[in-house]
Amino acid sequence: MVTRIENTAAEPATLHQDKQDKYAPENLMLYRTSLALIKTLVEDGVFNEKEYCKILTMLARKYGLSSDSIFAEIA
After folding, report:
1. Rounded distance, CA 74 to CA 2, Å?
2. Which of 17, 69, 73, 75 has CB 3.0 to 4.6 Å from 65, enough for a Cys bridge?
């Protein structure tokens, strides 16, 4: 019996970040987890409020959320 070693799938089984649904539960969970970590760092004094606002914008962009999304944190 011969074992095939090449990829026979029509397309990759996992979605690339650019094709991933921005409102997928996994994406939103990663976004919210990142927010929680950043909030903790602000409370610990690692970041100030101005830096926190910049980070919120960067995280929203990273996870594909617009500033007017109901899921985006607004500072």
Report:
1. 57
2. 69
pLDDT at 12: 56
The structure's pTM equals 0.67
Q: Between the CA of residue 8 and those of 4, 5, 29, 38, 62, what are the distances in Å?
A: 9, 9, 31, 42, 31
Query: Helix (H, G, I), strand (E, B), or coil: what is residue 23?
Result: coil
What pLDDT score does 36 carry?
96
Kindly compute the dihedral angle of the four CA atoms of residues 51, 52, 57, 63, in this order, to the nearest 10 degrees. 130
| Position 52 in a domain | yes
Within-domain flag for 42:
yes
Could you report the per-residue pLDDT of 19-35, keeping only the tens digit for each? Answer: 568 889 999 999 999 99
Asked whether residue 19 is domain-assigned, the answer is: no
Q: Would 36 be classed as within a structural domain?
A: yes
Q: Which domain holds residue 52?
A: 25-62
